[in-house]
Amino acid sequence: MKKMILMALxxxxxxxxxxxxxxxxxxxxxxxxxxxxxECCQKTRSASFLYEKDLKWEDxxxxxxxxxxxxxxxxxxxxxxFEKGAVGKAHKHYHTQATYxxxxxxxxxxxxxxxxxxxxxxxxxxxxxxxxxxxxxxxVLIDTFSPxxxxxxxxx
Length: 156
Known about the structure:
- Helices cover 12% and strands 47% of the residues.
- It is mainly beta.
């Protein structure tokens, strides 16, 4: 399972990196240029370097906070902090999701199947599949989404 999650994360990163360079009028576009004004660079994306101390925590649900760690149109990485007993309400979305359990212990329900996961474990959620969790021991999840979650940025 851990190997599957790592492979999924590696695949998502590869997709993102290949999407960061594109061609417009036969000119290579470098998304990391400091002052790129080319049309191809006018995409939604985070800064290249993000420091935890500078990122705000957003309240997601009671006892649940999230911190957006980086994104572009194809990928988003989000750190989600849970207090013991907090619930990630059952929901579904059209995004593919792969999550790594960085710490804590969680009861996950994916498409009606329940499993207990703890630090070092991971899980995959296909698009439009109902999923949710209950935090059994305070912890942190590292969520990845493809494509990015525009709703987390306040965009519709």
